[in-house]
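Tokens as discussed.
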């Protein structure tokens, strides 16, 4: 009987170790349960030797919310290294640089992000808005 049941309802595929707990990280983050989120992130980063981009990204967001902009920047830079074609990572690097007062560096990163995705109006708007804030 159980074999028939399994043939109609196959088991869900097991997620790769890099992504195994992303759903739980996301759940804690959107519920603003940052302490639980950080605990899961710590576990996930230990399991993946620090190579889980999503865990790094969310940890960087939490650091920035807590006012740890430099630490946030470093984690977003790691994300950009892990996934160099990801425009979102570059935008977060640029935003952190801007918050640290490194406007020229932020401008360069926004330019790089805009080159990767010229149709992304958010990148262009963010760049123009931040550029006008410094002048």
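Sequence:
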């Amino acid at each position: 009987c159980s074999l028939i049941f399994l043939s109609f309802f196959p088991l869900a595929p097991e997620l790769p170790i890099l992504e195994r707990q992303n759903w739980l990280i996301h759940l804690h983050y959107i519920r603003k349960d940052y302490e639980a989120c950080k605990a899961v992130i710590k576990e996930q980063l230990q399991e993946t030797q620090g190579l889980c981009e999503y865990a790094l990204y969310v940890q960087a967001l939490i650091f920035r919310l807590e006012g740890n902009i430099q630490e946030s920047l470093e984690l977003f830079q790691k994300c950009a290294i892990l996934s160099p074609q990801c425009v979102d990572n570059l935008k977060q690097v640029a935003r952190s640089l801007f918050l640290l007062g490194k406007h020229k560096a932020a401008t360069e990163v926004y330019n790089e992000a805009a080159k990767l995705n010229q149709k992304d109006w958010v990148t262009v708007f963010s760049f123009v808005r931040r550029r006008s804030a410094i002048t």
